[in-house]
Amino acid sequence: MNWTILQWVLLLASTGQIHSHALLRFITVEEQEAGVKIGSLSPTYSAPYRLLDERYVRLDESTGDLFTKERIDRETLCPSHQDGECTFSNTAVVSLNFEIVPMIIVVDDINDNTPIFERNEIPLHVPEDASIGTAFPLDDQAQDKDTGDNGLIRYHLEDSDGFFGIRQDGHELELVVQRELDRETQENHFLVLVAVDGGSVPLSATAHLNVTVTDVDDNCPEFDADSPITAIVPALRVKGTAVAQLKATDKDLGQNAQIAFSFSRQITDKAKALFHLDGHTGLISLAVDTQVDSPEEHMLKVFANSPLCPPAQTQVTIYIQPVMSQEPSVKIKFVAEHKNQVIVLQENEPPTILALLELEDTSTAKGTLSLDKNSMPFSLKPQAGSYLLSTSKPLDFEMCGEYEVTVIISDPHGTRLHRREVIKVLVEDVNDNAPKFEQTRYEKDIKENNEPGVFLLRVQANDADSQQFGKVRYRLKNGGPFRIHEETGVISAAESLDREQQEKYDLTVLARDGGEPSLEGLAIVSINILDVNDNPPVFPTPHFYFFVFESIPQLSQVGKVTVSDADEGDNGQIVDLRILNDSVPFAIDLAQGSLRSTGEVDREKQDRYELLVVAADGGSPVLSTTAKMTIFIEDVNDNHPQVLLPSSNLSCLTISPATRAGSMITKIFAIDEDSGMNSDITYQIIASKPALHSPFQIDEHSGNITLVQHLRGEDYGMHHLFIVVRDRGKPDPLQTTVWVNLQVNETLEKCHVNAIPEYTPPRLLPPMPVQDRCESNAGLIFYCGLCLMVISVCVLLAAVVVFMKRKNTKRKAEKKNVWETGNLCELKPLN
Question: Residue 160 to residues 153, 190, 193: CA-CA distances in angstroms?
C-alpha cells in the first residue's frame, strides 16, 4: 500500500467513513531473530492486510501473520521504562473495505544484561571496636538494565573469613560486622562483593570491597625487652650527659600510640635531683654535674603512661663511679674497622681480633683486665703485657645487631673494682638469608568464568635480613593467565578461566630479596578451577532423521540419540532426555540412549513425525538443549485394494445392442491406502457368465471395461464379469474381487440382480506375476491370433472341399437326366 492510499484511508477514517476496530494486543520477547511469528489478524479480520509502520514488525499481506522484522532490544526501545511495560504501537489496514485496526506490541524482557558496579574497588573504613551486628551502609550498588526478576539483584560476600556479612533490605545494602575486629592483628580485609540478578539463568558481577579497620585506643604501652636495666655513669660527668634510653611501644596508631614517661614518686629525693627523665623520649640524663668520692647506686622506677591505661613500669639501676686518682686506665688500639670509637664488624665473620687493650698503670696501683660475665660472645686474652679483644664465634645480625662489651679493671686479686670500660660493637648485616614463605604450598579453589582481576589469595615471604637485604619482591614462574603483585604478593587472574580448557594450575612463586647477589625462595600455588554449569548438553546434530517401517514391533529400536555435556559431575550428567511432543508412539530410553517405538505406527494415518527432543543436565541452574527429530514411516503392503466403483456386487448396468465396438461401457475404480508399488493396482477378468465368447474386455491399468465386438443376438441377456483387483506389493500382492453385472437389452430398462453370482475357481489358478503381466498378455494375444488364423484356414479349406463336392454331384445328375430323356433343349439352368 503506497503512501497516497494510506493518506486516503486515514482521511476516510477521520471522517468516519471507515470503521476503526478495538485495539489488538500482541506480546513478543526481546532479542529474538527476525522472522519470529508474534500473532495473526486472520482469526478476526479478512485479507488483504497492510501495516502503516514497518520499523519493527512486518505483516503478511495474504495470511495476516505478524512477524518480527529485526532483533528488538527492550532496553534500547524503552530506556526510561526499566520497571514498567515496554510497548510500541502500530496500525493495520485490513479487508477490501480498508478497516483500521490499532495494535499495541508488548516487548517482554529477558535476562540479557549483567549487573554492573560503577567502581571495581570499593573502600570502606570500620573502627576496630565496632560491636558484632553493627551495620555500615554500602552506597556502591550494582545496576541492572533488565526489569522484573531479571533486574532484581541479590548480594553476597566471598573471602570474608566470617568477619563480615551482607544485609539487604529492599534497596538498602549494608555491611554487617559478624566477628570481633582487631586492627593490630589484621588491618585490611580484602572482600569480594558479588551481585547476582534473579534471572532463570542468573548473571553476576563482582567488585573488590577493601575494608580498612581503623584504630582505637585499645592497647597499653609496654616496655621493650631490650630496655636498659643497668647503666653506669663514669666519674666527672657534666649536666645533660645521657645515662639511659628507655624504650616502650604502644600497638595503636597516631595519638592513640603516644606514650608519656615519668618517674615513680617512690624514688629518692637525691635521685630526683641527680637525674632528669624526658617525658616524650624516655631519655634519662644527668640533671647536674656529678662528682662522688665513692660508688653510688640508684634504683629508679619509671612509668610509661597512656590515656585510659594502667601505667607500664620498669626499673633502672644506675651506678655512679667515683673519681679515682692514680688508678689504672685502658688504652684501646682498634684492629677491626671502627667509627667514632665503635667497632663495626660484618656478620658471619670467623673469630676475629677486634682491638688491643693496654692497661696503663700508675705507680701506686696495679690492675688486671677482664670481661663482664654477660659480655658474650667475646673473649679477652693476655698477650705480651696487653690484652687481645676478639670474637669467640661468628656474629649473627639477625640474633643481635649491637653489643656492649664491658671491660672490668680490677686489682690483681680481684677484690677491688677500679672501673668499667664499655666498648660498643655494631654488627653489619649481609645478605645471608633467603626469603622464606610462610607456607611451602598454597592451594586455592576458584570457580570458572571468574571476573578478571579478582583477588584470589596472598602469599607471604619473610626475609630475616635488614633494610634492602630483607625487602622482598614477588614474581610468577609459568604463571599463565595469573598475575602477582610485585610488592604485596596478591595473586589474581588476568582473564576469565574455563575449566573445560584446564582444570588445575600449578604456579611457582619466587620471592627475591634486594641483595647483590639476590637470594630467592619459592612456593608452589595450586589453583583448582571448579566447575560451574556453563555448558548446555550438546547433540551431535541439530536435526535427527530416522526411517522405520510401519510394521515395527513395540519397544523396537528406531535409532540412537546421543548427547554430551562438557561440564563435570552433576553439571555434566544428562538427567533428562525426552520427547516434548504429546501422544506420539515413540520414547527415548535414557539408559541406552536409543529411540524406541511405544505404540502402533500406521503410515496410512501418519507418514512422518516431527518431534522436539530436550536434553537437560543435573547442574544448578539446569541447562537444556533441544533438537529436532524427523521420523519417516516407510510403507508395508498391509492394505487390500478397495473397490469404490461399482459400489456393490449387485450393481447392474443395461447396455444397448447398438453400442459400437470399442466403446467404454463402464469403469472399475479402486484405491489402495499403501504407497509406491504397494498401491499400484491392476485389474483382470478371471471369469465370466456366460463363459464363452464374452464381448467385454477390461484394461488392466485403468480398469476401463470396453466392448470389443459388435453385439449379436446370442449376446442378449445378462453378463456377469468376475474381476480381480490386485496391487503390486512385495513380497506378496494383496487382492480384492468384484462382480460387474451387464445386461444387453434394447429397452434400456433398469436391470436388477437379486443374488451375487457364484464363482467356482478352477483347481489350479496359475499365478500371475505382476512384473510379467505385459509379457504374458502379449504372448496370449500372439497365441490366440495364431490359433484364429489356423482355424480360419481350416474352415476355408473345408468350405472349398464341400463346395467342390456339391458341384461335381450336380453335374453327374444333369448328365444322367439328359441321357434318360434325350431332350437336351429342355434343360434348365441350375439355380
Answer: 20, 8, 10
Query: Between the CA of residue 734 and those of 445, 571, 641, 672, 762, what are the distances in Å?
Result: 72, 56, 7, 10, 19
**What type of residue sits at position 176?**
V
Residue matched to cell numbers 627475591:
512
Positive or negative torsion for Cα 23, 25, 31, 33: negative
Q: Check the CA dihedral 642-644-646-650 and report its sign.
A: positive
Amino acid at 278: D
| Cβ atoms 228, 247 nearer than 8 A | no
Q: Which of 213, 212, 214, 195 is nearest to 204 (CA)?
A: 195
Quote the CA–CA distance of 233 and 242 in Å, as a whole number: 9
Sequence length of the chain is 831
Quick: pLDDT tens for 478-507. Answer: 888 999 999 999 999 999 999 999 999 999
Rounded-to-integer distance, Cα 460 and Cα 485, Å: 11
In SS3 terms, 767-815 reads as CCCHHHHHHHHHHHHHHHHHHHHHHHHHHHHHHHHHHHHHHHHHHHHHH
Q: What is the distance, to the nearest Å, from the Cα of residue 810 to the centroid of all Cα atoms in its chain?
A: 120
Collect all residues with Cβ–Cβ distance below 8 Å to 163 and sequence separation of at least 6.
177, 178, 179, 181, 189
How far is Cα 717 from Cα 719, in angstroms, rounded to an integer? 7
The pLDDT tens digits of the residues spanning 684-714 come to 998 888 876 789 999 999 999 999 988 888 8
Q: How far apart are CA 382 and CA 538, in angstroms?
A: 92
What is the rounded CA–CA span in Å between residue 404 and residue 725? Answer: 131
Tell me how far apart the alpha carbons of residues 289 and 273 are, in angstroms, rounded to a whole number.
11
Around Cβ 337, how many Cβ atoms within 10 Å? 13
> Considering the entire predicted model, what is its pTM?
0.44
How many other C-beta atoms can be found within 10 angstroms of the C-beta atom of residue 581? 13
Strand, coil or helix: what is 813? helix
> For the purposes of burial, counting CB atoms within 10 Å of the CB of 605, is it exposed (0-12), middle (13-18) or buried (19 or more)?
exposed
Of 700, 687, 753, 695, the closest CA to residue 726 belongs to: 700
Domains and CATH numbers, the chain: 3-108 (2.60.40.60), 121-214 (2.60.40.60), 222-320 (2.60.40.60), 329-428 (2.60.40.60), 436-530 (2.60.40.60), 543-634 (2.60.40.60), 642-760 (2.60.40.60)
Per the listing, cell 619509671 goes with 302
- Tens digit of each residue's pLDDT (9 = 90 or more) over 30-80: 888 889 999 999 988 988 999 988 889 999 999 999 999 899 998 888 887
The rounded distance, in Å, linking the Cα atoms of 330 and 367 is 10
Hey, what amino acid is at 725? V
Alpha-carbon Rg for the chain in angstroms: 60
